[in-house]
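PPM-type phosphatase domain-containing protein
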Amino acid sequence: MGHFSSMFSGLARSFSIKKVKNNNGTCDAKEKEMILKSCGYVYAEGSNNSASVFSKRGEKGVNQDCAIVWEGFGCQEDMIFCGIFDGHGPWGHYVAKHTCASVDQELEHHRKIDSYNSGTTAITIVRQGDVIYVSNVGDSRAVLATSSDEGSMVAIQLTLDFKPNLPQEKERIIGCNGRVFCMKDEPGVHRVWQPDTEAPGLAMSRAFGDYCIKEYGLVSVPEVTQRHISAKDHFIILASDGIWDVITNQEAIEIVSSTAERPKAAKRLVEQAVRAWKKKRRGIAMDDMSVVCLFLHSSSSSPSLSQHVQHATTFK
């Protein structure tokens, strides 16, 4: 675990380099289509990895998601990086290029980013061979679709949603003189507040930035786990909380698994979540929704990357 903890701590260096090894053993600029920051599909010939990506902006003003997929991450041909950054401020892409360990310190002194009153969650996966490493800060979620012993497809949640009302999170916040409570018009939605002011009202207990509440219990410490992939494991869904507010883990994997074409899987899940939101949360402003579907095994029907990387929508 030490090696990959260091890798997560070095995302800043890795993302800023964008290199792959050439015949001389050095690194050249990586082809743009291998790093996908927009809606589309990543599939490289000969790779076991493929990923479908889609995002839809919600109705909450400055809230902004960012999704990224990088095949050949860290100059390793057999490595892929996937991440979703659910920002409540205009800087999700900045975190996508920096490290879990140092991003808070860098953001605090960044001249162009208001890290005092804005922030972002971050959920990332690095896969190398048959091992995946998951890092989570906030309330986005990773769900694995796998086969049970009986042959049915089941959902396994790989991460914990860091909400303020979780016992260990609430204890830390209150111990730092922060407050946790729901607004009258949002029953069940627990938020973090400053001691004497009804601000900022964050609905998560871990995030990058948001320095206005950092001294009152908000932290940016990631939960990092690892798991070995088996032949029974099919795909992993990374999604921001707007998806999970209205779609269950089992519903999500069934939507993705029933999508005939892999490139359309993420978009179809978002579309189903939008319909569910309109039905279950009528009158409530829709949240941003971003999805990355990482398929863990190759498919003979998978088209080439060049046919499916689309740049019609870019998250900025």
